[in-house]
Design brief:
The structure holds two protein chains of two kinds. By secondary structure, chain A is of the alpha/beta class. Chain A has a domain at about 5-190: 3-Layer(aba) Sandwich (Rossmann fold), CATH 3.40.50. Chain A is built from 19 helices and eight strands. Chain A has a four-stranded parallel β-sheet with strand order 2-1-3-4, with helices on both faces. In chain A, strands 6-5-7-8 form a four-stranded parallel β-sheet, sandwiched between helices. In chain A, helix 6 (about 120-125) links the parallel strand 3 and strand 4. In chain A, helix 3 packs across helix 5 and helix 10 packs across helix 15. The radius of gyration of chain A is 21 Å and the shape is globular. Chain B folds into two domains: about 5-150, Rossmann fold; about 220-260 and about 290-360, Rossmann fold. The longest helix of chain B has 26 residues, at about 155-180. Chain B contains 15 helices and eight strands. Chain B has helices at about 5-10, 10-20, 35-40, 55-65, 70-80, 95-110, 130-150, 155-180, 185-200, 200-210, 235-240, 270-285, 295-305, 320-335, 350-360; strands at about 25-30, 45-50, 90, 120, 220-225, 245-250, 310-315, 335-340. Chain B has a four-stranded parallel β-sheet with strand order 2-1-3-4, sandwiched between helices. Classes of the chains: A alpha/beta, B alpha/beta.
Chain lengths: ~400, ~375
């Protein structure tokens, strides 16, 4: 049972939204599948419905359909041990109707991704084995070293964080995407609608910023990470809508109320923990066992924090501001020196005693994140695993390692 | 008997260290996407770094184990101090392993843990004007970085001189490619030639290539090699030791080097020149990590036809993701017998040889 009404409301909304999407697609509506690191705002502004690839991957994983989806990928002649999280949606298309979560993902008309890593572009190109599916790719450019703390600069002075060349490239690609979408869907892009979408997103993320700050300052922590994840991420998938903005405000209000009432996840909170890296979707109950056994509470995950610090962009040119939001969003989470400095900042503001760091095999710079945290005097447990492929993860091993780590922190 | 070219190919680092000791600046290059002509035009020697033999335990601890060993071995060499003679290292964005290598080297340098400074030449790869403009800006930054590292200015005249020297080496490589396609040069010898050409000063490389000559006619079973770029020559030796001949390849230590054109004319304004360099790479043979599966399959089919291969062999190291994605379409379009050795098996030369035997039987 979730303790957050915001989370329950978000999950209910998501089911209703997905059912309506399926119905609309059945009626002939075109829709897009978009990787999370590619801009979705233009689709929102043009009224083109979309599903975020990583959200669908989380549903496939949570419904225990990841292994079968990966087998479908292998059966189609592609590797099932590469980019597993990105490829789950593709594989899930092969699930039978009974096994497919939420009735299954309809066939998209368009797929959009950034060319991150060596194979993400190929994962999305594989969708075009069905020639009726169109594909648009953004370039992936490399992080530069910003001339100050990015979390202070990114809202207004984004060119000092990401560099003008990177932003100019992605802005040009935004314009190309608009042409691609207009051609493929017959819809017309209106700049004023994108500007409204951008305003709504900035409002939404400002609410997330307030929520993050409330949780950082609260002792004991009033809300579980496993609750805030859906309450933040479902509205994130609806960024640019009034519902998304209002959901973020509702979360802020609910958390503020809990803080004011002195609410606590764990009455005997003794150890505050931070979870760095992607979540382990399949067993969130693990967190609860640590609360009961050790008084250990996870007070931080990247989902709320990156919403708070990573997405807000103010500026007169919506196309440029949109580029500045996405051009380095994954750098902020993984690339040195941007990511390590941010995690240290967040660990300090949240007063954590230890960090569990899930090191996925497709992210750069993980050792420098661990090193920076340890240099800041914060103990770190590294877990090396893919969060998407259940075949590579032994949760009992993870739990044992975390138990030992938390027990060590308590002594 | 080991040829002079082979000896040189196996120890290019020592030869380049001597160049550095003589006082000439040496700048290291990782990957195929850095235009060596700009480095040479600065007065520095462009040395393309091949994976070394250093143990990678320490490198793995810093960069992680889930990265192609080609990058780990370069990192290991830098961390061991074996490349301290370099004025700097230019890293291509040719694959994810190179990007990770760059982030790691940059951070280690920032922390004072390694000597050479590092710069990423962030050339991206789609066939779009916006991509080209970004790449031109990246090359302009590289230009300034190289001038600073080499303490030498780049001019139209110096670029022209560098281009001419590199063109001489290209000429030798092209001659060897034609020998290879007519059965007069082994794949192993061709690989040695490419290594030497990418690492040694052009006059030395051209002499070694010229002196090496062709080999006796060989009717070995002709195989086209795709997959991971080899760390050394072991995979080639194993394949050719099994009676096959590697008549062509699509990795970035082989024939694709010749598809990245040198500038035909040296434009007087910098932007035009950089645009030509950036265009040349985009027009070159598609690499696994930066191209579509469709482009790769088409290029493989054409290269098989050009080289006269009768089989397609893919050898894919662990953590080299892209080639395995390309494989389905490559195999479907190759029109010859095809087999892939992937993951840990790719490190087992006996398994590679067994697959070669299978291909011979199937072709």
């Amino acid at each position: 049972m979730t303790r957050l009404e915001s989370a329950s409301a978000a999950l209910t909304h998501q089911r209703e939204w997905f059912a309506s999407l399926r119905a609309a697609v059945a009626d002939g509506e075109r829709f897009a599948l978009v990787n999370a690191d590619a801009p979705q705002e233009i689709l929102r502004a043009m009224g083109i419905p979309y599903v975020v690839n990583q959200w669908w991957a989380s549903i496939v994983t949570a419904k225990q359909a990841a292994a079968e989806s990966l087998e479908q990928v292998a059966r189609s002649g592609y590797p099932d041990d590469s980019r597993q999280y990105d490829v789950l949606a593709l594989g899930s298309r092969g699930l039978d109707a009974e096994g497919a979560p939420w009735g299954g993902l309809p066939k998209p008309d368009l797929v959009i991704a950034e060319l991150s890593g060596d194979a993400t572009g190929k994962v999305f190109e594989a969708w075009t084995d069905d020639p009726s599916i169109g594909y648009f790719a953004y370039e992936r450019t490399a992080a530069i070293t910003p001339d100050g703390p990015w979390w202070e600069l990114a809202r207004w002075h984004w060119d000092r964080v990401f560099g003008p060349e990177r932003i100019a490239l992605m802005a040009a690609e935004n314009r190309l995407l608009i042409e691609f979408l207009e051609e493929r869907t017959g819809r017309t892009f209106e700049l004023s609608r994108l500007e409204r979408v951008m305003r709504l997103i900035n409002e939404q993320e400002e609410y997330n910023r307030e929520t993050r700050d409330l949780i950082a300052a609260a002792r004991p922590t009033p809300v579980r990470v496993s609750d805030t994840i859906p309450a933040v991420m479902v509205p994130q998938w609806h960024r640019g809508s009034e519902w998304g903005r209002d959901a973020a405000r509702a979360l802020r209000d609910e958390v503020a109320g809990m803080v004011a009432a002195g609410g606590a996840v764990c009455e005997g909170e003794r150890t505050r923990l931070m979870w760095v890296g992607r979540g382990l979707w399949s067993d969130t109950s693990m967190y609860r066992r640590f609360e009961e056994e050790y008084g250990a509470v996870f007070v931080w995950s990247m989902y709320l924090a990156i919403a708070a610090d990573g997405y807000i962009r103010y500026g007169d040119d919506a196309i440029q501001a949109l580029a500045a939001r996405f051009v380095g969003i994954t750098d902020l989470l993984y690339a040195p020196p941007l990511a390590p400095e941010w995690y240290v900042k967040e660990a300090r503001t949240h007063g954590v005693d230890g960090v569990v760091h899930l090191v996925a095999d497709d992210v750069p710079g993980a050792s420098f994140i661990t090193l920076a945290l340890e240099e800041a005097g914060i103990a770190v447990l590294e877990i090396r695993a893919s969060n998407a492929d259940p075949r590579t993860l032994d949760l009992s091993d993870v739990e044992h390692a975390m138990s030992a780590f938390i027990a060590g922190l308590a002594t | 008997m080991t040829s002079e070219l082979e000896r040189a190919a196996r120890d290019v680092r020592s030869a380049v260290a001597i160049v550095a000791a003589s006082g000439r600046p040496v700048i290291g290059i990782v990957g195929r996407d850095v235009p060596a002509v700009l480095v040479a035009a600065s007065g520095a020697h462009p040395y393309r770094i091949a994976p070394g033999d250093e143990l990678t335990d320490e490198a793995d601890a810093v960069m992680g184990r889930a990265v192609d060993r080609a990058a780990s071995r370069v990192l290991a060499a830098v961390m061991a101090g074996s490349l301290d003679f370099l004025r700097g290292i230019l890293v291509s964005r040719d694959c994810e392993a190179s990007v990770r290598l760059f982030y790691t080297l940059q951070e280690l340098h920032r922390r004072g843990a390694i000597a050479p400074p590092v710069h990423l030449v962030d050339q991206v790869h789609q066939n779009r004007e916006s991509t080209l403009q970004y790449n031109v800006a990246q090359l302009a930054t590289m230009w300034e970085m190289v001038e600073a590292w080499a303490s030498g200015g780049i001019s139209t005249r110096s670029i022209e001189a560098a281009r001419n020297e590199l063109a001489d080496v290209r000429g030798e490589l092209e001659r060897r490619r034609s020998w290879r396609r007519s059965g007069r040069l082994s794949g192993t010898a061709a690989l040695h030639g490419y290594r030497v050409a990418a690492a040694l000063p052009p006059t030395d490389a051209a002499r070694l290539l010229r002196d090496a000559g062709s080999e006796a006619d060989d009717a070995g079973f002709p195989v086209f090699l795709t997959g991971s770029a080899p760390l050394g020559d072991e995979v080639y030796r194993a394949i050719e030791g099994a009676g096959a001949r590697v008549v062509g390849e699509d990795h970035d230590w082989g024939d694709p080097i010749l598809t990245d054109r040198l500038p035909a004319r040296i434009a007087r304004d910098r932007d035009s020149l950089l645009r030509e360099l950036a265009t040349a790479r985009l027009a070159g043979a598609p690499a696994a990590a930066s191209s579509t599966m469709a482009a790769r399959a088409k290029a493989t089919r054409e290269a098989i036809a050009a080289s006269g291969a009768r089989a397609l062999l893919s050898v894919v190291r662990p953590h080299d993701e892209a080639p395995a994605w390309d494989w389905r379409h490559q195999r479907e379009q190759a029109d010859v017998a095809a087999a892939m050795v992937r993951g840990e098996a790719a490190d087992d030369l006996e398994q590679v040889v067994a697959v070669v035997e299978t291909l011979r039987a199937a072709s």
